[in-house]
């Protein structure tokens, strides 16, 4: 189980090695993704709160990266955070996510990306439920439920 100290350690000293890498040109990404997926995954945009596919969805399943199909989260770790975006307590595996410090928009946050393709997913915060206290706040456009 990952904790906030683990997230900070990864962001500061290096992320886990991914099981594989997917690299494409920007033109290839633009052709492979919907416009909304491209804006979120490749241009680091954030979709509107509460008006996204998985915000209020709690069906069983697993969530894969919309860019490369890598397993990112399990629905068993999804919870209602009242944030406006899907929220999870843990990634599917420690090596599923890449962490980066993000000081854009006059905030200090930790950005989360797919560790395989580098696609922007959202951010992680230390205000989630026990026992780990993590809240992965993720854009629905970056996910595909299977």
From TrEMBL:
Checking Pfam families in the record gives: SelR
Q: Name one GO biological process term.
A: protein repair
GO MF, any single term: peptide-methionine (R)-S-oxide reductase activity
Q: For this UniProt entry, which residues form the secretion signal?
A: none
Q: Does the keyword Transmembrane helix apply?
A: no
Q: Which InterPro entries match?
A: Met_Sox_Rdtase_MsrB, Met_Sox_Rdtase_MsrB_dom, Mss4-like_sf
- Record's Gene3D superfamilies? Peptide methionine sulfoxide reductase
Oxidoreductase among the record's keywords? yes
Top-level class of the enzyme under EC nomenclature: oxidoreductase
What is the protein's given name?
A: peptide-methionine (R)-S-oxide reductase
Tell me what organism the protein belongs to.
Answer: Hymenobacter aquaticus
> Quick one: which gene encodes this?
msrB
């Amino acid at each position: 189980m990952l904790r906030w100290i683990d997230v900070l350690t990864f962001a500061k000293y290096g992320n886990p090695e991914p099981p594989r890498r997917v690299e494409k040109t920007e033109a290839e990404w633009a052709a492979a993704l919907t416009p909304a997926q491209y804006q979120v995954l490749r241009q680091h945009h954030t979709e509107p709160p509460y008006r996204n596919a998985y915000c209020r969805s709690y069906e069983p399943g697993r969530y894969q990266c919309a860019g490369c199909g890598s397993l990112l989260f399990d629905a068993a770790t999804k919870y209602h955070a009242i944030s406006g975006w899907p929220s999870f307590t843990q990634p599917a595996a420690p090596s599923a996510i890449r962490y980066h410090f993000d000081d854009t928009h006059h905030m200090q946050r930790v950005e989360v990306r797919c560790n395989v393709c580098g696609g922007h997913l959202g951010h992680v915060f230390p205000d989630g439920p026990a026992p780990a206290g993590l809240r992965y706040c993720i854009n629905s456009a970056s996910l595909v439920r299977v």
